[in-house]
Amino acid sequence: MMRNLHPENNDPDKLGEFLDSSNRAWRQACVTFFGCIDRATFGGKYREQIYCACLPGCCYEELLNIFQHFRDGLILSTKQYKEIPAGLFRFFVGCRDEPRVHRLLGRFSTGVITMEQFRSASKELKENQQKDEDLKAENKRLRDENEQLKKENERLKRQKRHQDVFEYAEDLEQTEPTVRKTYQRKVTAEVEVHLEEAHKKRRIQKEKEERYIELIDEIIREDEAETTEVTEAIEEDNEVVENIQEVTNEVTFSKGEKITAFWEDKNISGWYPAVVLRVNKNSYYVRYFDGVKSSLKPKDIKKTAN
């Protein structure tokens, strides 16, 4: 009922997207419809129901199948349930990864996994999503810090160039009267020592600045290397998660078996009835209900619900 009240429920452009769960008009309509819901605690107390009501269309269809299986007593579990136990979908709250959510709901709906396995897998999905978000946040922090170091390095380089010009002009101003005085009278030994010390101090200062700039360049290179490692770690984690999901999602089918197969082109996409014509090493050759034949990977095939 909460989904039927949502203004985006029948919007064809929103079929593959999550509905806006923060819509104030929709939340007020839910509070008014149910009557007994406290408006102040609606968002926190019913966050699981809000999330389920705002699922994308394909995920919501799998959810309805799960509801029906509970009513029919077809859910695989160590205990018998006639109603959905509280908190079954609590680990999904906040997860916006539509392909993973749909895959997990579909496996539970078709009986590939038990309710206990579904709970464990949804918890693992939540933890993996949190790790991904933490890695992305750390990656962003390192990139921002890297940009700040680059800006500071450029500023120091500009300051050094300006200082060199200023020192050169200062040297000219100091040298010109010294040269005139040289021809006017002899330069004393004390003045020569003073000039030598001044030049020595300037050389030492320049060397310090150059070492500081080199140090900043080295820090920037280390940060870039660390940023690259974090990015590679994120990609490796995603590949590991996808490989684990592909391995755990494998279900064998036999020739002549009726199945539900995924079809997608520029006009339509979805799951349709089909039959297995040939079993290959890493794929299945199937014929859809309308006669179209295609070779599919195991992830695009699932058992037909009873």
Write up this protein.
Residues 118-162 form a coiled coil. Helix content is 59%, strand content 10%. It is elongated, with a radius of gyration of 34 Å. Helix 4 (57-72) packs parallel to helix 5 (98-109), helix 5 runs antiparallel to helix 6 (115-184) and helix 6 packs antiparallel against helix 7 (189-248). The mean pLDDT is 81. It has 7 helices and 5 strands. The protein has 3 domains: 12-113, no CATH class; 131-248; 258-303, Roll (SH3 type barrels), CATH 2.30.30. A 5-stranded antiparallel sheet has the order 4-3-2-1-5, with no helix packed on it.
Give me the secondary-structure topology.
Layout: H1 24-34, H2 42-45, H3 47-53, H4 57-72, H5 98-109, H6 115-184, H7 189-248, E1 258-264, E2 269-279, E3 284-288, E4 293-296, E5 301-303
Helix pairs in contact: 4-5, 5-6, 6-7
Features:
alpha+beta, 306 residues, Tudor domain-containing protein, coiled coil, elongated, SH3 type barrels, 59% helix, 5-stranded antiparallel beta sheet
Short synopsis of the structure:
With about 300 residues, the protein is of the alpha+beta class. Helix content is about 60%, strand content about 10%. The protein is elongated and about 115 Å long.
Total of helices: 7
**What general outline do the C-alpha atoms trace?**
elongated
Q: Note poorly predicted spans.
A: none
Spatial gap, N to C terminus: 26 Å
Q: What structural class do you assign from the helix and strand content?
A: alpha+beta
What is the helix content?
55-70%
